[in-house]
Amino acid sequence: MLGVLNYYVNFGRAEILLLFFFGLISYLFLRFLTLLVQKIFWRAAQEPFSQQLLLKSAFSFCLLILLSLVVVGLAMKIIDTPASVAKIAAVDNFLMAADKEIFGVYVPFWFQSNANALKPLFDWLSAVLIATYLSLGTVLAAVFIFVLAVNSQKFYQMFLAFLLSIVLSLPFWYFFPSLSPLEGYIENVPGVLLPADISEAVFSYRPNDDLKIFFVHVKSVKANMADNFMAVTTMPSMHVAWATIALYFGALTWAALVYFLAPFYILTFIAAVYTMQHYAVDTFAGALIAVAAITVVKKFAKTEPPLIISELSAQVRRGLNFLASRLRAIRLRRD
Q: The Inositolphosphotransferase Aur1/Ipt1 domain covers which part of the protein (predicted)?
């Protein structure tokens, strides 16, 4: 299962996001242990009431973290358990057919089609689209840290929405396993006979140089996995789901962030399909998953966040303020 997690981290270049969650989990458990040791060696009569609340909140949030790890582990287990090739191929064909039925074209292939009048524009934006797709982990981590520093309640809700988006996606990954258009059709990993019209689209597909380099990156990451490994998390798109969550909570925390996050969101939406990692219907499904997760969290997590999160928020805020002051001092010395 760790191999599967490593695959997704390397594939999406999400090392910074993983480092953020590792730091968050490490801090919370160490803080909980510290509070527990203090409680053991303090006499109850001398123990501050606020310290008791902090210990309880640390314990409850550590349980939530453990639940999160169980959910992630379950997701990795589902991905690491190969579904039948016939089932995967059937789901892939269904999704591709849905694209054609809804949009009139096989959208993943359409971007590089000579019949696409916008092809020169997408070729011009190619490097930007690919960079956007690969930078989601970094942007998401930055938004998490910013929201944590500014508003502990919104951070708590964002964290829950992030976790819930994975939970809501698990049934799709289990019952509707699907490969990306790149693996399902261009590389034909299942090794099945493709429908005639899709086969023609595959034959006519001519990726530009930027996409060719990106496809090499995808292959190099998968080269370290077992031969029977199949990344069946195409439907729904977690890239779009998490970009939606980042946009919502980032803009809610500081409205000015929308000027960066909205264009990033639109580019992510396009890039998910442009890079042959998703079908068009996947992106809309990912957005719906995020909306559902946010709606549930906003309805049931209205109260103040655990005290341990508020404490961490204050510490992060002080740390960022100190860093900002040091940077200002350095700039003044240079001037």
A: 124-295
Domain ranges of the chain: 2-334
User: Mind listing the pLDDT tens digit for each residue in 88-103?
Assistant: 889 999 999 999 999 9
Q: Which residues contact 68 (CB under 8 A, 6 or more apart)?
A: 163
pLDDT value of position 6: 61
d(CA 289, CA 194): 30
**Rounded to the nearest 5°, which phi and psi values hold at 228?**
-90, 5
In a 3-state reduction of DSSP, which class is residue 178?
strand
Give me 180's structure tokens: 């990306």
* pLDDT for 12: 66
Per-residue model confidence as pLDDT tens digits over 31-90: 777 777 776 665 554 444 456 666 666 667 777 777 777 777 776 676 666 668 888 889
Query: Does 236 sit behind a cis peptide bond, omega within 30 degrees of 0 on the bond before it?
Result: yes
Q: What is the pTM of this model?
A: 0.89
43 to each of 37, 46, 204, how far by Cα in Å? 12, 5, 76
Q: Which string of DSSP letters, residue by residue, matches 85-120? A: HHHHHHHHHHHHHHHHHHHSS-HHHHTT-TT-TTHH
Task: Tell me the C-alpha distance between 158 and 167, whole Å.
Answer: 14
If you ran DSSP here, which 8-state letter would residue 42 be given? S
